[in-house]
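Researcher: Next sequence.
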Amino acid sequence: MGKSCKVVVCGLAAVGKTAVLEQLLYGNHVAGSEPMETLEDIYISSIETDRGTREQVRFYDTRGLRDGMEFSRHYYSFADGFVLVYSIDSKESFKRMEALKKDIDRHRDKKEVTIVVLGNKWDKLSERKVDCNMALNWAKAEKVRLWEVTVMDRRTLIEPFVYLASKMTQPQSKSTFPLSRNKNKGSGSVDS
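Model: Next structure:
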């Protein structure tokens, strides 16, 4: 197990951010339960990657955004990854998630971060307001992975989080820049 990765989970209020984490990590989401407002919670989990290694991930479950509310900027500086959540039955939540993605790109200080997008409440297909193909095309253009999930079926949550942990902990590829193997241990400068 390498370093602990820090993942910020964000989106509009009441899209199911906490429910996703509770169901993924503990399998204890109760259908139809009244959503509770989150200020900030931290969940720590050990996730098996696609390489078979276990990696520790620290999830920062953030307060749901409401009209006129800005996303706290301090998250941009320390996050290794982001999970952007919208609800498929809310066009407004998708638009807010798009704005969050732009903010992340603008404020992440050239740091490489992994971003996954979850279209939650897949079980409410009859109430869909966000077109699946439109969302997938947006994700492709933004170079992020998108999954439609539901907390009613925990299995839909596993693949996105395995992908996230695998991508964030991917071994660095060897540089193609040739390093000289000079046996001279000096600094390279010549003193006269």
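Model: Residues 187-192 have pLDDT under 50 and may be disordered. The longest strand covers residues 40-48.
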